[in-house]
Specification:
- This protein is α+β, with helices and mostly antiparallel strands.
- The protein folds into two domains: 50 residues, no CATH class; 110 residues, no CATH class.
- Helices cover 44% and strands 11% of the residues.
- It is elongated.
C-alpha cells in the first residue's frame, strides 16, 4: 500500500522480519499490544480493531470460490453497526451523491436497484429494512442513494469491498450509477 507512511511501514516490517520468525510474529500478534500501548486498554483495542479484523477476515473468506455470508453473533453485528454510525462519514463522506445506510438483517439479495419506478423515485424495497435507529445518513445531499443490507455487508461496502459485499442500492438510477462509478 502507498501513502505517506509507506516507506516507514516497509522499513518497520523489514526490521521485524529480520528479528522474528513467522511463528514468533503470530505469537506476538496473539498476545496483544504491549502493556504500555494505548491499544492495551480494552475499549481502545476494541474501537480500533473490531472493524479492521472483521474486514480482513472476510477478505480471506470471500477470496475462496463458493463463499457465502456467515451468520454473525448479534453482538458483533451491533458492534459493526455502531462503528458504521460513527465512522462511515470518514470513509465515504466525499461521495458525489447523498448516502444513507439502512440496516437490514434480512437477505441482502432481495430487491433490486436496476430500475427506477414509473414516477422516477427509487423502487420499493422488498427487504426487511429496519426503521428508526437502524438508518444513518452519511452525506445529506440530493440526490440520495440508500445502501441497504446487514451490518456486516454495509461494513464491507463502506470499507471499499464493493464487489464482495451484498447490499442493495436504491435511489434515482443516475445517482446509483454515479455512486457505483465513484466506488470503483
Amino acid at each position: 500500500m502507498g501513502g505517506p507512511l509507506a516507506g516507514y511501514t516497509a522499513r518497520a516490517q523489514g526490521r521485524l522480519k529480520s528479528r522474528k520468525s513467522f511463528d514468533e510474529l503470530i505469537e506476538a500478534f496473539r498476545s496483544g499490544p504491549p502493556r504500555l500501548s494505548p491499544f492495551a486498554l480494552p475499549k481502545m483495542d476494541e474501537a480500533a480493531n473490531t472493524v479492521e479484523y472483521f474486514v480482513h477476515h472476510e477478505d480471506v473468506r470471500r477470496a475462496a470460490e463458493g463463499w457465502e455470508p456467515r451468520d454473525l453473533d448479534p453482538s458483533l453485528s451491533e458492534a459493526l453497526w455502531g462503528r458504521l454510525k460513527s465512522g462511515a462519514r470518514f470513509l465515504i463522506g466525499k461521495a458525489p451523491v447523498g448516502i444513507e445506510l439502512a440496516r437490514d438483517e434480512g437477505s441482502a439479495d432481495e430487491g433490486s436497484a436496476d430500475e427506477d419506478s414509473a414516477d422516477g423515485s427509487a423502487p420499493a424495497s422488498t427487504g426487511l429494512a429496519i426503521a428508526g435507529p437502524h438508518r444513518v445518513t452519511v452525506k445529506r445531499t440530493a440526490p440520495l442513494v440508500t445502501v441497504t443490507g446487514p451490518a456486516a455487508e454495509l461494513t464491507l461496502w463502506t470499507s471499499g469491498r464493493v464487489a464482495a459485499s451484498r447490499v442493495r442500492l436504491e435511489g434515482p438510477k443516475a445517482a446509483i450509477n454515479q455512486l457505483q462509478a465513484w466506488r470503483r
